[in-house]
Amino acid sequence: MAEKITSREADYSQWYIDLVRSAKLADYSDVRGCMIIRPNGYAIWEKMQAALDRMFKETGHVNAYFPLFIPESFIQKEADHIEGFAPECAVVTHGGGEKLQENLFVRPTSETIIWSSYKKWIQSYRDLPLLINQWANVVRWEMRTRLFLRTTEFLWQEGHTAHATRAEAHEEVMRMINVYKTFAEEYMALPVIMGRKSESEKFAGAEETWCIEAMMQDKKALQAGTSHNLGQNFAKAFDCRFQSKDGELEYVWATSWGVSTRLIGALIMAHSDDKGLVLPPKLATRQVVVIPILRGDKEMVVEHAQNVVDSLTADGISAFMDAGEQNSPGWKFAEYELQGIPLRIELGPRDIDKGVCIVARRDNGEKTTLNLGASLPGELQKLLDTMQKAMYAKALDFRNTNTFEVADFGEFREKIDHGFLVAHWDGTPETEEKIKEETKATIRVLPEDQDLVDRFDMLTPGTCIYSGKPSLRKVIFAKAY
Amino acid sequence: MAEKITSREADYSQWYIDLVRSAKLADYSDVRGCMIIRPNGYAIWEKMQAALDRMFKETGHVNAYFPLFIPESFIQKEADHIEGFAPECAVVTHGGGEKLQENLFVRPTSETIIWSSYKKWIQSYRDLPLLINQWANVVRWEMRTRLFLRTTEFLWQEGHTAHATRAEAHEEVMRMINVYKTFAEEYMALPVIMGRKSESEKFAGAEETWCIEAMMQDKKALQAGTSHNLGQNFAKAFDCRFQSKDGELEYVWATSWGVSTRLIGALIMAHSDDKGLVLPPKLATRQVVVIPILRGDKEMVVEHAQNVVDSLTADGISAFMDAGEQNSPGWKFAEYELQGIPLRIELGPRDIDKGVCIVARRDNGEKTTLNLGASLPGELQKLLDTMQKAMYAKALDFRNTNTFEVADFGEFREKIDHGFLVAHWDGTPETEEKIKEETKATIRVLPEDQDLVDRFDMLTPGTCIYSGKPSLRKVIFAKAY
User: Fold this and answer.
1) Residue A402 · residue A479 · CB < 8 Å
2) What is the pLDDT of residues B299-320, one digit of tens each?
3) Chain B contacts in chain A segment 385-404 (CB below 8 A)
4) Residues in chain A with pLDDT < 70?
5) Which pLDDT score, from 0 to 100, does residue B4 have?
6) Closest chain A residue to B53 measured between Cα atoms?
7) CATH second-level architecture of B282-386?
8) Where in A307-355 does DSSP place strands (E)?
9) Taking CB atoms and an 8 Å limit, are A70 and B137 in contact across chains?
10) Which CATH class, in words, describes the domain spanning A403-478?
């Protein structure tokens, strides 16, 4: 068993680190800012990858792989892009024992290396759209790192698409941010607010960045995914033109979109508790642990427990047994709570006599008595579904309870540590910057979710809470990871 | 449609490059020696990954992820390892705009960074075995590159395991080389010879390297996978000890094993022909293309073709239709032959009248008439299975036909361009080196496959074909990729 986890109340940051380490999800490596994703953490990433990859393919995308290295001259071709990324790059200056003629940047993102290929692949409107995704590692030299949330190297997927018109590119941007929203809500049980970023917060090189933002248990915001409309910026930087149906030579329209191993951090921070990890059933590699209570005829108990595992496995539920005698049932309960196994089945000789077993839910500790036999897999599947939905409902309720509309900057200052603040903003980067300087809060998103827009009457003009100038709409401010 | 492919007979190397480019499998990037794996090529890698990953998990392994960067001092901890790998490393000297205090090597392989973690994770025999695999990119600064076969950056998996005894480590080495052999033979339809490498050819830092070697259509050898017994070399380099059951402090025993995107090159070189790619059905993302012959009532023909696609899809066969009118059936036949779709179904109005369709196999061009209706998916599955086996049998026959035993060095010189040569060798690196200098042939493998050992009476001592000194066994020489 692992060392004790600090409680969330005592120290939320320490709780997070303790949990990630105790549950063996990740650890810092001996390389500055780089993490090791341990098997328990990587298993979550594999489940995320499988679901996302399927959703990408269902929306017409294919996977490819582009080089890790980007020539310095490529990064420099798009002005905003170089300004945003060059300072945080790792640079290869030597290879094969010799100094390189041109430095190579380890990719911080792949727009430039990919558009230098698209230029070769795209000649005509018949070559469009090009809908490619890549699963890869990227490197951004971070000063302050935090496991999963911000590390020098991380894993992600980056979609890079090419289109014949601005409208098609916009459609793609929206399609993918909605794929992310669906994934976050249905798989991660994580409610997210979808909308645009302000100019200051958008991607370096994009015309528009769309995002999904989630609330963590400390009421801070976490950006969980982004989808960028790159306009013709990269096509112009790499001179990528195509012959349109009308025979005109036009620049190609681009999008890019990505989510990363940061999502694992979001998952932990949104749902887990002082006992350890709480995993939504859809992202749990192991969904049910069966713990035989070894009293009386031990062999008989283990045999029944094995039968339960077998019947669940046959029904597509991922189950395993811990029949080890060196640890007590209590130790096992704690260990699998730490690991976030969604359901625990306790099975002792008296339960077997009665033809029942006790099932405990990881999210709320609720215990249910279920009959052994043919109906058990179906009942457990129902419990898993219920738990998945309950986790989402709980997180949504938490976010709603901690989202406040504020009318003036005094109220803003008072409430900024207590959640998401809905407020009018005059639309200028200057006001945004001043609010950030004074409160550390940033504009997280200009929401487009209809329910939220309606609830807070977001699109009716008003007065900026900071400058008193006219405001076209309300936005969401929060402190963020 | 793509440009014409050079024939294998005219120029085998050019044929390979033409094929890889025409079938849009991969392309060189603007970064020296780095390739772009295009969607058609990456789809093969995804099929390979899925099968291998399943086999790794079935043998008890889990996935994790370790950092891309390795501090220079780590690489230097194992003497043979640094000698083998340092000269071909890419080196990061700057990060975040500043010169680094210690250079970081981009991983050429991950033993050192992984064993620096294992040292922290392993205290007792209870922590063993540790059975971890990683899917990752690696970089080796290659002077001469060839798409898939030898590139500066490539994708691979690397297993790194830790064991309590030498015997357990050896068992793991053998288990994994056999997993690779099974994968090569059953999925890639590629016969391989399993055995040990000579001292000169083994992995830098290993006690023993086991490998699988395959023959390409130009009769050259290609190393398709390796499994290394690392002894206690890395445990000693990183001072990784564990408390044994007897309470003794002992060094941990290690293995590592890997296959890479090189396998895609092997697959192409072993099976493909002058028309393009030939893919074994088990590694084809798209197994059947249905081409409606658009004469007479076109809508009716397309509807029937769509029914065929639907019935195959429902049965788990991956099928698609090309009903486009801009290209002729002949153009489509050529295009999907180039792409290596295993089966092609031709369906015209007269076929529909007769209730049949024509099925063409990609590997040998054989055409079969099959009845439309409920029996079709089953019949096609049979054809796919038959094709998978036929491809293996053909490749095995080719290898057997081109494997010769040679009795002296004169015969060796004569036949070395014609296949694998079975010959006695005195076991010294000096003789190995001289043969290499004079003929460019290397010892590919000291075979352990029983059938091959028996066929050539490999383990009976004799006389070295080069030095005339005593030889303990026969080995296999060949020119290699």
Assistant:
1) no
2) 999 999 999 999 999 999 999 9
3) none
4) 1-3
5) 85
6) A46
7) 3-Layer(aba) Sandwich (3.40)
8) 319-321, 343-347
9) no
10) alpha beta
